[in-house]
Design a protein that fits this description.
Blueprint (H helix, E strand, L loop, with lengths): L2 E9 L4 E7 L4 E7 L4 E2 L5 E2 L2 H16 L4 E10 L4 E4 L18 H10 L3 H8 L9 H11 L1 H6 L2 E4 H10 L6 H4 L6 E2 L4 E2 L1 H5 L15 E6 L2 E6 L2 E2 H12 L5 E5 L3 E5 L8 H5 L2 E5 L5 E7 L1 H16 L13 H6 L32 H24 L6 E6 L5 H10 L4 E6 L3 H9 L15 E5 L8
Parallel strand pairs: 1-6, 6-12, 6-13, 14-18, 18-19
Antiparallel strand pairs: 1-2, 2-3, 4-5, 7-8, 9-10, 11-12, 14-15, 15-17, 16-17, 19-20
Helix pairs in contact: 9-15, 11-13, 13-14
Length: 462
């Protein structure tokens, strides 16, 4: 008897992953691919949308051919701030522009001047001004810089919904993608912002469909329920929302370390926006206040420098265990002189300005790097905790497996319960959980999230 499963495609910037989950949310099959990039018309690197579409079709065909499994549903999670523009026949009209593509300064100024200023827009749309990372601005750019192309666009889809449409031939929008720092959504009025309507961009955006909905399809002779896909950060939060009812903050760590507080209902302030706070949208359409740090990238860059300086392998930090005596020794290090800050945004820790010759060993330098990162993390996470009743902090992703990071975080938040939490492929699992009733006859498992509690055993300061 074939095993009932759900198929999930989890599409990141670097890795494209395919999974089969059984009804207990255990992964029974998986494979990964890395696809070559291409460039857009300006020579900027970007995802090869044709290559990606072919991988999606090939991956689904491969999964459906596995006779040991009964694939009852398919869903998708992808990175955000990326849009696919289609003509009336469903053909892709543009490259999949990279969200790091520089945005024309004059056009950005035109936009904010027309619609009441940057602060007014960012406050309503719960996102800092981030150029191309504000996906709505990508469509605005096409309208004013490529008007003939714009007129030929029938639908503008966020990437998860485009991937879904490859199987369903149906076009929808989803709230987790629209609410992901796009500047399209007015969080105060819970609808598209007025600028979207005035520019008539809403006519290019397909109708909204709930993330718990599916579309009945027959693929290669297999009847299957297909979800419309969702933004990866919102998907990764779902296992925690379904497992815990008491308030918590989730620090999702990777290249970005994002502190997510689903229990903070206060509107974003101008000061919070200046410090890179924003709101994501969870799959029921409720805002999730978040703050971001680029700490995973900083960790990668600084550990490369430490490896060269001390003559050790790049991944030598994996052998380092937390040592409170080394933390105490950091008090004797010379003070750091920082350059004048240009704004209030939390950019990187003070470690970038430290003299590596002042450290006695790699271990001391690495403890200092992590202490500096945690000092910044403490500031960032406090922005979203504020006066909420949160008493628990969960950490998932790469840093959750780092004992130095976890012990220092517990020291930084002595009145909180701090846990290293783990969900097997949380983003993919979240996309599967969103459509649970459409494929799974079993109740949700009680052990979706595994946790390790970190406590402060002695009074320490960082």
């Amino acid at each position: 008897m074939p095993i009932p499963v759900v198929a999930i495609l989890d599409i990141g910037k670097t890795n494209k992953k395919a999974f089969l989950f059984n009804e207990q949310y255990a992964i029974v099959e998986e494979f990964t691919a890395q696809l070559s990039e291409t460039t857009d018309e300006d020579g900027q690197p970007c995802e090869d949308i044709g290559l990606l579409a072919q991988w999606v079709v090939d991956a689904i065909t491969r999964l459906l051919s596995m006779r040991a499994y009964d694939i009852r549903a398919i869903n998708f999670s992808t990175y955000g701030a990326s849009m696919v523009h289609l003509d009336a026949r469903g053909r892709v009209m543009t490259p999949l522009y990279n969200y790091l593509k520089p945005y024309p300064a004059a056009l950005q100024q035109q936009f904010y001047t027309t619609y009441g200023g940057e602060q007014a827009i960012t406050s309503c749309t719960a996102s800092p001004a981030l150029g191309s990372l504000n996906a709505g601005m990508q469509l605005y750019r096409i309208k004013y810089r490529q008007p003939q192309l714009y007129e030929r666009i029938t639908w503008s889809l966020h990437l998860p919904q485009y991937i879904s449409s490859l199987l369903t031939n149906k076009y929808y929008s989803d709230i987790t993608s629209i609410g992901c720092h796009t500047q399209l959504w007015d969080f105060n009025r819970n609808t598209y912002h007025n600028w979207v309507l005035q520019e008539q961009l809403d006519k290019k955006l397909p109708p909204l469909l709930g993330d718990e909905e599916t579309i009945a399809c027959v693929i290669n002779g297999h009847p299957v329920a297909v979800g419309i896909g969702m933004h990866d950060s919102s998907a990764a939060l779902i296992p925690y929302l379904l497992s815990f009812t008491d308030p918590f903050v989730l620090i999702s760590t990777g290249t970005w370390c994002i502190s997510l507080n689903p229990f903070n209902k206060q509107p974003l302030t101008a000061d919070e926006l200046n410090q890179d706070c924003l709101c994501y949208m969870e799959y029921h359409g409720r805002p999730v206040k978040a703050s971001r740090l680029f700490s995973g990238d900083e960790h990668e860059q600084q550990t490369k420098k430490l490896a060269v300086h001390f003559g050790v392998p790049v991944n030598f930090y994996n052998s380092i265990r937390f040592n409170p005596d080394i933390i105490a020794s950091l008090q004797t290090l010379p003070p750091v002189t920082l350059p004048a800050a240009n704004d209030k945004a939390l950019k990187q820790s003070v470690f970038a300005w430290r003299d590596l010759n002042s450290f006695q060993s790699y271990e001391q330098a690495y403890h200092c790097l992590m202490a500096d990162i945690i000092s910044l993390q403490q500031q960032s996470t406090r922005l979203v905790i504020q006066d909420t009743p949160v008493r628990r902090i969960f950490v998932d992703g790469g840093f959750s497996k780092n004992p130095v990071y976890m012990h220092l975080l517990a020291i930084a938040f002595p009145h909180m319960e701090v846990y290293a939490a783990a969900v097997a492929q949380a983003t993919a699992a979240g996309a599967a959980l969103a459509i649970h009733p459409h494929w799974n006859t079993q109740p949700l498992p009680a052990d979706l999230v595994t946790m390790q509690h970190y406590t402060v055993t002695q009074k320490m300061h960082i």
